[in-house]
Each structure stands twice: as C-alpha cells, then as structure tokens.
Amino acid sequence: MIHIRTFIGIDLDDDHKKSIYDLQQRLRKYAIRGRWKHSSNFHLTLKFLGEISMDQKKQIDLSMSSICSVQKPFSLEISETGTFKGRNSIRVLWLGLTGSLKTLHHLAGSIDRSMSALGFPPERRPFTPHITIGQDIIFECPFENIQDSIGSISLDPINVEKVNLFKSEQVQNKRVYTIISEYNLKG
For residue range 122-142, what is the model confidence (pLDDT) as tens digits? Predict the structure, then answer.
C-alpha cells in the first residue's frame, strides 16, 4: 500500500512568494547560519496529517470538500516577523498574519475536528497562523534589532479562495511540496 506524507494548507500565489522571498533575503543578510525555506514552499499550514494511504485521501477529500463548500473566501495580510525559539538558535523564523483571523481560526478548527473524526490526532497546541521562512537560524545580533532595521511590513492582501492538500517529499536533498487536491471556498 502506498503512503504519502501530507498536510492541509493554503498556498500562496507567485507574487506573494516573490515578495516574501525579498523579505527573507533582507533578513538572511543578518544570519550567521540557518536553513532557509525555498520560495516555492512558502505556505500557511492548517493541519499536518503525516503519512496517509490513498483510501484515507479519498476520505480527506470528501471531508475537506464539505468544509470548504460552506466557507466563504476571506483575506489575510502579512503583518510581522516573529520567532519560535529553540535551545541555541531560532527554531522557526516566521511571518505573522492579520486580517480575517477569526475566519481562519474557525476554518482550522473545523479541519482539525474533521480530521480527528477520520483518525488523525487532534492538535494539542493552539493554532498559531504563520508562514515559515527559515529554521535553525542564528543571527549576528538580537532579533529585535533586526526587526527594527527591517521596519514595518506592507504586502498586498492574500485572498484565500481555496485550501489544498499537499504532498511533502524529499527530492535530491530538497523538501518539495506538491498540491495533490484543491478545495474551493464556496460559502
């Protein structure tokens, strides 16, 4: 039986990926070391599923189509940089969001409950919407200084009109995310 590693998320269009990449490069110049996300992989994760079978994919597709059929499209904006700290480094360097966060949290909660009913473990941590741009980062100075020098972030709003099921795989030592199902927001 074939199994694939998957997650549910919101993909970003090429213009947003380019803008995020430009911001990432501005931050990267302050880094001593770290792992930087490839621009094609910029996305907003709603639910990590892990390994699934093709039978489970059919169930996921049905459940996600149902959830998205009653959800109206909404808008988000990238508003800030932030970090999740590790022991000796910044475990995750991320971009935070504003906009229709109540709608986003409701959608993520609906997905978590629906996937739990299909046998996937419910999330234990609160949903913290973010776009990861780097991992295991060590900067040459305190991150707050870098935030000050970068200044405020102003990117075009992200119009969320669909949610995707992504396949995550390692290809030639590079993490590759491929959309394998798409669910349009129709509400």
Answer: 999 999 999 999 999 999 999
